[in-house]
Write a sequence for this structure.
């Protein structure tokens, strides 16, 4: 934190060109906020956008798989083919969704990600 005493004594330097107005407290707090280490939200926003895109694709794929299973059951006399597809779907794709959700959650908790949009 910048101390007012340091500002008054001139111990805190700022770059100001001739003719520019003197900086205000808001200018210093903004500069401090920009230089502060810690959480930034740009990469987090990108991770959230990616998660939404993945969710949308996963939901669309899930709907299509359900439709394929129904069509298989209609075409074949039994429901075994649809059950095989459904079992594979549950065995491989649902855990994949959990892995992706875990990754996205980790991205949101990571305090060292960049906030600036690039």
């Amino acid at each position: 934190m910048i101390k007012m005493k340091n500002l008054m004594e001139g111990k805190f330097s700022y770059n100001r060109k001739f003719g520019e107005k003197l900086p205000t407290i808001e200018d210093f707090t903004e500069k401090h906020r920009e230089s502060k280490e810690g959480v930034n939200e740009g990469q987090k926003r990108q991770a959230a956008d990616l998660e939404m895109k993945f969710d949308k694709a996963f939901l669309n794929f899930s709907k299509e798989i359900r439709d394929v299973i129904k069509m298989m059951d209609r075409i074949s006399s039994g429901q075994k083919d649809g059950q095989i597809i459904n079992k594979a779907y549950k065995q491989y794709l649902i855990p994949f969704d959990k892995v992706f959700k875990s990754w996205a959650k980790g991205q949101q908790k990571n305090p060292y990600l960049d906030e600036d949009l690039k």
